[in-house]
TrEMBL record, chains A, B:
Gene3D superfamilies, per the entry: PurM-like C-terminal domain, PurM-like, N-terminal domain
Protein name (record): Hydrogenase expression/formation protein HypE
Family: Belongs to the HypE family.
Gene: hypE
Domain PurM-like C-terminal: 177-309
Length: 359, 359
């Protein structure tokens, strides 16, 4: 091979504007979107990557598989309702579930900082194994690296996952149709607020626990019941607003949602007000939106309401799956929301960094 | 689920002795081995994980796949003969190759430190893409996280890989037989010394370049020719000595090697003497051992010698595939070496940390 010819190509991110990586480049909003769309996707360009889903759908001798990866850098490592270990399993399981795959196998890559208490590692490893059992996946391969003290932050965990796609429907933004309803599987904002409450030392009357949970079993029940799911997305970094914007943009559709239909727990709403956050942009780890034709909406809601989310300490009364809006028409891809006082406004993708290191 | 019952289990690593994670826990030697065998394998226990290979062999509706992951934390990010990007592709491709799989798909997970120059990221991304093209794999899914300044070290890259196993033979330590010859595909020690030379500011008459290279094409040529490969292992962290010890232990066989048969370039040998390293323990990123029955040895060597390693700036005259030893008998699993002066000694697994952050 000749001497790296592409090294002469100039950086696709405007260096004058962004000479260095900012926290917001990992925040799930506009800057991360720019990095993915302008750098990673063109550089690694191939038909699979270009589908822009949380998991890649790959064909392997006639077998349809899903493949995904996520690194987890959440601080603190342990928080009400979860820890970096269970998050690393649930997050990757959920990325597979969002393309309709049955998660089967995970890898686990650890980047440990010299000086991490061995007991901390052990707690995290056990939490991963419990989460893997709950989600019915096996951790089959792994790797351990240690970086010198001061060059990491305790522990970072990467998981990659393989799932099998058993249903023929293409679950992707491209399948979204005008008239589809947007179903949300529960209240939003708990994961992000649970993390921030610990970081800021805030105390509420009740402890706000992360909603971190595996979603694959519920999704597979929906598919088994014949629900025609067009698209799904879990509401992690960037929250509900960013997820809907990504889908609207790729689908080239307008999405209209109704603020009063979006469940937010009172304590979460209160914490958002204190901290200056908009719950629409706060990360969740057990919440997703599904785009479904009207004909299937009631049945889907019924299945969601009767499903026991596999989650410790889950207060089921908080979870209230509901229709929060619908796809109105082909458009340039915007999200509109009718606010509590009846005014319609555009809901944009997250700009800047709302909550760093939330997952 | 009830309240984490396993959290009451005590840590399987003796806390009095190892209260915290040490650099050596990631060094590829005894402490990493202990961490894997005493913590990860029992915790994540399943039939696949227990095979103790670089890649897991998984069956999926009758299709045999290989699945592996590695995180890369090498310092410096760029070094003679490679960089963290090409290393992250070649390393994972090689782990798949070592179980006889044809590598097909990779994931890419980035953990970026706030403040990383955008141009640095771009150079690494391009290098990954070039390495992926050279190894004939596609990067189909990815993830980006950003950690605050001072909580990372520029960039860490995780790749996971999926390959397809097209040949029926089980390539694993368990398949090793007495009488097998041990073939090494080239000179050892260049990757580790290339890294250390940059770190220590050492200058040699010629630049020592990393041997980082993708090995899958060569391995697939051996398999296609009908070579009965019993086991392979690439010689990364812990070097040749640790790889042979791992295989000897799992196979329950004694391996005898001959020091004068192991190619080490003169400049590498000289650098090892200056730095106080034993080349047997220095990391490589394009070298592997193959355990092959005597009948196939000549043919395998012929294929290796005529194969053009897909590597920039590779000085092919350095690469001299050769037989370095053989499997003598069933035993408790030790590696013996006849030294240059004709004395036989036991070659142990790396203890402690020889070269931190080499990959």
């Amino acid at each position: 091979m000749s001497m790296n010819p592409n090294f002469t190509l100039s950086c696709p991110i405007p260096i004058q504007q962004y000479p260095t990586v900012l926290l917001a480049h990992g925040g799930g909003g506009k800057l991360m979107h720019q990095l993915i769309e302008q750098m990673f996707v063109p550089a690694f360009s191939n038909a699979t990557l270009n589908v822009r889903q949380d998991a890649a759908a790959i064909a392997l001798n006639g077998q349809n598989l899903a493949f995904t990866t996520d690194s987890y850098v959440v601080r603190p490592l342990f928080f009400p309702g979860g820890d970096i270990g269970s998050l690393a399993v649930n997050g990757t399981v959920n990325d597979l579930a969002m393309v309709g795959a049955r998660p089967l196998y995970l890898s686990a890559g650890f980047i440990l900082e010299e000086g991490l208490p061995m007991e901390t590692l052990w707690r995290i490893v056990q939490s991963m194994q419990q989460a893997a059992q709950a989600a019915n996946v096996q951790i089959v391969t792994g790797d351990t690296k240690v970086v010198d003290n001061g060059k990491g932050d305790g522990i970072f965990v990467n998981t990659a996952g393989i799932g099998i796609i058993e249903y023929p429907q293409i679950i992707a933004p491209q399948s979204v149709q005008p008239g589809d309803v947007v179903i949300l599987n529960g209240d939003i904002g708990r994961h992000g607020i649970a993390i921030m409450a610990v970081r800021e030392g805030l105390e509420f009357e009740t402890t706000i626990e992360s909603d971190s949970a595996p979603l694959a079993d519920l999704v597979l029940q929906l598919l088994a019941a014949g629900i025609e799911i067009h698209c799904m997305r879990d509401l992690t970094r960037g929250g509900l607003a960013s997820a809907l914007n990504e889908i609207a943009e790729v689908a080239g559709m307008e999405i209209a949602i109704v603020e009063t239909q979006i469940p937010v727990r009172e304590d979460v709403q209160g914490a958002c007000e204190i901290l200056g956050f908009d719950p629409l942009y706060v990360a969740n780890e057990g919440r997703f939106v599904a785009f479904i034709p009207t004909k299937d909406a009631e049945q889907a809601l019924g299945i969601m309401r009767s499903h026991k989310i596999e989650k410790e300490n889950s207060n089921l009364s908080d979870i209230n799956p509901c229709i929060i809006g619908y796809v109105t028409e082909k458009s340039s891809g915007i999200v509109k929301m009718t606010s509590k006082i009846g005014v319609q406004r555009i809901v944009d993708m997250l700009s800047g960094e709302q909550l760093p290191r939330i997952c």
